[in-house]
Amino acid sequence: FEAAFGDKEIVCGTYDKKLLLFDKFKKAFVYQWQSTTINPGGFKPAIVYSIQQDNNILWIGTNKGLTQLNLKDQQQQSFFIPSLLMENNNALVKKVVANNGDDLNKLWLIPWQPYNGIILYDFKNKKIIKEWHTRNSKIIRKYTDLFYSKINHNVIAARDSALDFFNENKGFLKTINIKGKVLSIEENVHGNVWIGYTDGLIYLNIKNSSLKPFFPSFEGTEVEKTSFGGTFPVNDIKIGDQNTLWLASVKYGLFSFD
Known about the structure:
By secondary structure, the chain is mainly β.
């Protein structure tokens, strides 16, 4: 599942179409957001792919589009983006990231197939401002992850074997090629990038674009080894206390790395 972490609670989006609140101290799920006859505007069942916390606001990307949840008053709002609709009238949003720049009314989104690419969305005016490598472009690319750099103020997006760098004003900046299929990326406090790929971790030094791979020593069971592609796929990365990396692997589970 995807999760947004707080001091006492965790908001969890699950693959079985639920949005739940987990209490760390009670070690139990204590609330479920849902649409009812009393609250028809509540969270409608959807597969949650991305949760982005921006102060007291949660931005949720699902297989039915984009949802905003206010944690203070529990009010929710769905955003209808017509140009992203698929044949079943759903807008699959794989990743949502707050802009964190001068204009806080903007979001960076990864729409899934068939739209693809990256879009910059103005949720206040409910319109797409800019887009790159979507089905409306000459070069179409499918991205797996992205973040807005608080250090360099650029957006870095991951695709199969590369990282693409974007800027809201300048547009596409550059590409850094990676040996291996990139699955996840995360920025550290110095603005450098941890890259999770099919065979472990890669550390990218932003200043000189150098790449340093880290190969895992962990060996799973014979069943695990043959269950998914790659020797150690890192599907998600979170940086915790004292710069410890938390790695989620669909093949082997949860690991820490320091």
